[in-house]
Amino acid sequence: MKKNAVIMSAILLIAAVLAVSCASGGGAKTAETFPNAKYFWDFSDPAAGTAGWVISDDKWDFHGTTSLSRDDKTFKKGMLRWDVDFSQDGDSDWSEPKLTVKLDKPVENVRKIVFDFIFNQSLTNDGLFKSKAIIFNGGKELAAANTDAIMGIDPVSGGFVKETVEIPVKGSSVDVIVLSIAGYKTTYKGPVFFDNLRLE
């Protein structure tokens, strides 16, 4: 009898993990590849578009334009593409356009936001990127954090480089996220990409 209870508990645990990962768009593969993911966006579904991510009206010392889309052609897989123009902000220490998303249900016990960030080194001068995340619940800010410089240490293709970015933010019942890529004395103009974006 005890053995059956243990087996049933294991089945329920596996089902719960799969339900969370499938609900957030990652499917069963997400649970295998990113076992710590509490919520996941891989942008693999063309019908989902940007999967709820939108450009925020809020910005800081940013004077260019941006556009957001799902792109599955540049790297032959679905990614979130953000076309940004920092060409007017080359003197700024922190030029910050922002993205935001409202979750379909609150996510508990978030410890960090993780994503692959991809950009093209040939489209920037000596400046660099940083990132910031803010998490909310019911309109109340729970936590905010910045990253150090994003260096892009892994070559991808066509001049693009990738770095996995981790932003430590802690909060329970997270229902809204604001995510930004801030330019530090950069005149970058062109696309940047997000992949394997997740809450852990």
CATH topology of the largest domain: Jelly Rolls
Number of separate strands: 12
* Helix proportion range: 10-25%
Low-confidence stretches: 5-23
- How many angstroms separate the termini? 35 Å
Gross CATH architecture of the largest domain:
Sandwich
Q: What is the average of the pLDDT values?
A: 88
The CATH class assignment of the largest domain is Mainly Beta
Total number of distinct structural domains: 2
Largest sheet geometry: 7 strands, antiparallel
Overview of this protein structure:
With 200 residues, the protein is mainly beta. It has 2 domains: 1-35; 43-199, Galactose-binding domain-like (Jelly Rolls, Sandwich), CATH 2.60.120. Helices cover 14% and strands 50% of the residues. It has 2 helices and 12 strands, in the order ααββββββββββββ. It has helices at residues 2-23, 28-33, and strands at 39-41, 54-60, 66-71, 79-85, 96-107, 110-120, 128-137, 140-146, 154-155, 160-171, 174-184, 189-199. The chain is globular. The two termini are 35 Å apart. Residues 5-23 have low confidence and may be disordered.
Keywords:
200 residues; mainly beta; Jelly Rolls; seven-stranded antiparallel β-sheet; five-stranded antiparallel β-sheet; 2 helices; 12 strands; 14% helix
